[in-house]
Amino acid sequence: MIGDRVTEDRVIRPAVPAETEAIAALHARARATYYPDGVPQDGTDWLANWRTAVERRDGHVLCVLEQGRIVGLASFRTPPDAPARTVRLFQFHVDPGRWRAGIGTALHAACVERWRTDGLRTAVLDVHVDNRRAQVFYARQGWIADPERPPAEGDHHLWLRYRVPGGS
Description:
The protein is an alpha+beta fold. It is built from four helices and eight strands; from the N terminus they run ββααβββαβαββ. β5 (86-94), α3 (103-117) and β6 (122-128) form a beta-alpha-beta unit.
């Protein structure tokens, strides 16, 4: 694992199990911003999902901490059905109270560094169609519409693809 990325007031490092409640809470705050009718109550136990993600040996959850508080997070892994050297970014969130502070850009750079180190060439993700802020952010980072997964009728997600710079 790449060592902690540290600046004067910010640390990016792997999450630990004791942080899953804070991670799930940040995730809930972020998701609430892009559902126009409120976050769907589909029965998903997000705390359990995050606990599993943090404990997975085949995945990564990176956290951004400022003054000891989690203000950003990213979860990614290579699913078994993914094409060779492809990683899927499952979750990427910045605390809404900290938007436009460079947290997302720094976290994205840490993800790309990990992917490059792991020899990955491509990253994929899906983003909610109503999450325009995220779509603009991803476009600025170099993500494009995934030509292999065009939008499907009635689907509420757009699939994006990213070429990992220097990926072997």
